Structures are given as structure tokens and as C-alpha cells.
């Protein structure tokens, strides 16, 4: 699986209707949706679909047709995300109506094509499942811990409290192995 590296968009015109598709990280999609509604007040539909992994490592998906005929917009977008094996990614496709009705089949093709175009132009990174870990170490051991993390490009947050340091990390499998070796 992969996820979007940075927000990307594309534009497609079909029978005088303009479709603008955006791809972003899941955590940014609500903000993006609000911004797009302000930037494009004359757009008629703001369709979205997203996929992310919840805390139980289950894929959560949702979609909205935004008053297009049922399953003619949101579901095709969700299917495009599934087909591209994207996770932690959201799609927002807005439509400026051009006066010509496309029919359900035409809408499915239009929304899918607009999103596929955005995917072709986007940059992706491999998705890595990360686990949140918290630990406590003595202040005297902190510099060694910090050096190990910096050497292995591991990000962490630390809070100092008298003689101890509370540390929180989000680690993939490889980083967990490095940390296990450090703690041994």
C-alpha cells in the first residue's frame, strides 16, 4: 500500500462540466474541503472518498455523492482509491455543472477519470504501519538514546521531569528492532 506524499490536483472537462480532483492526506481532507468550498463557491458538487487505518489496524472507508445520483460519484472515487491501493488518503472532486446532464454512467466515468488523472500526477510514498510507544528513561541515559535515534532517523518527543525523561515515539518494525537493541 502507498499514501499521498503531498496534496495534488488535476482538472478535467467533459461535456462542458469541469471536474477538479484533489488528493490529500486523510488528516487534511476536512480542512481542504472547507477551503475548496470557499475558493469555488459556484461549484455545484463536492464529492469525497477516503481510506485510512484506524487504531485497531482496520481500514476505514467513507464516501459522499453530495447530491449526485446515488453511487454515481463517491463510490467510483472510493473504488479508484482502492484500485490504486491508497491508504491514509482522501479524494475531493468538485464539479462545475456545464448544463449537459451526463447520466449515471457518464458521472461514474467522469468522476473516476478526474481522480485517475490526479493519481497519475501525484507523488506517493510507501505506507508503513507504525505503532505508538511510550517509555521512561533516566536523564543520564538520554544523550545515548538521542544519539541512537538521530543515527537511525527515528523521530521522538520528550518531556523532562526531575531525574527522568518521558519519551513518545511512532515506530515501524525496523525502528522497533533498533530500539530493542538499544534497550537490551
UniProtKB/TrEMBL annotation:
Query: What single Pfam family name could you report for this chain, choosing any that match?
Result: Impact_N
The record places domain Impact N-terminal at 15-118
**SUPFAM superfamilies in the cross-refs:** Ribosomal protein S5 domain 2-like
Q: Name one GO cellular component term.
A: cytoplasm
A GO biological process held by the record = regulation of translational initiation
Superkingdom field? Bacteria
Q: Which residues form a coiled coil?
A: none
Q: Which InterPro entries match?
A: Impact, Impact_N, Impact_N_sf, Ribosomal_Su5_D2-typ_SF
Matches recorded under Gene3D superfamilies: Impact, N-terminal domain
Similarity field: Belongs to the IMPACT family.
Q: Which PANTHER family match?
A: IMPACT FAMILY MEMBER YIGZ (PTHR16301:SF20), IMPACT-RELATED (PTHR16301)
Q: What is this protein called?
A: UPF0029 domain protein
| Source organism of the structure | Campylobacter avium LMG 24591
